[in-house]
């Protein structure tokens, strides 16, 4: 039984990661902005799964909050706190705006949460894990990373490239790095960004439970790239092979 830290843990894939890890008898450290909702989730998991759940309210776009989470990840277990053996960098959001005429403060916040936080937390976790000779880092990316879909796609492209480079650096340490790249998934993600997805066919959607189960299975086998579902594996292969001019012509990823 190990300890996993999950960011963005009160909704969507983060919540599903928390429940599946708890069901697998992992202790948890849950990170999210809403302290009240975070404690509600933690208490339900404690009662149902019978595991220890720490709560760490933090806004990952605020550097002081981010540093507190990094400090928790750096703990090696010499004190009372259990060392984190699995980091799930899940927190993120779609800006729901065009870049050129959008609010630049929103873009900067998204960059802080989906890029800078992944960088800082991965570094804190990798340092602690390599000293102990075991552990795993799972970064939540997106198939959007292979598209020309604005700043969200750009952030996820960074996550993908960063994770692959990290995996190379971690070879032989006993620590692994995996990036999961789901497609459209039934969560609160699109509604929070006020994106109208009503025209997307049901066949395009994935279930959060399936995405998380496949991602965790890939972490256990040490895979670097995880693309849930056969149809999105095929879509990713097509996007990698297609001329970039054709990819740009498709337009914005939603």
Give structural notes:
- With 254 residues, the protein is α/β, with parallel strands linked by helices.
- It has helices at 12-23, 35-49, 63-74, 104-132, 150-169, 189-192, 208-220, 230-241, 244-250; strands at 3-7, 27-32, 53-57, 86-89, 135-140, 175-180, 185-186, 206-207, 225-226.
- The strands form two sheets. Strands 3-2-1-4-5-6-9 form a seven-stranded parallel beta sheet, with helices on both faces. The chain has a two-stranded parallel ribbon with strand order 7-8.
- Strand 2 (27-32), helix 2 (35-49) and strand 3 (53-57) form a beta-alpha-beta unit.
- Helix 1 (12-23) crosses helix 7, helix 3 packs parallel to helix 4 (104-132) and helix 4 (104-132) packs parallel to helix 5 (150-169).
- The protein is globular.
- The mean pLDDT is 89.
Question: How many distinct helices?
Answer: 9
Order of helices and strands: EHEHEHEHEHEEHEHEHH
Structural class: alpha/beta
Coarse shape: globular
Mean pLDDT: 89
Number of strands: 9
Q: Approximately how much beta-strand content do the residues carry?
A: 5-15%
Largest sheet: 7 strands, parallel
Q: Give me the side-by-side strand order of the main sheet.
A: 3-2-1-4-5-6-9
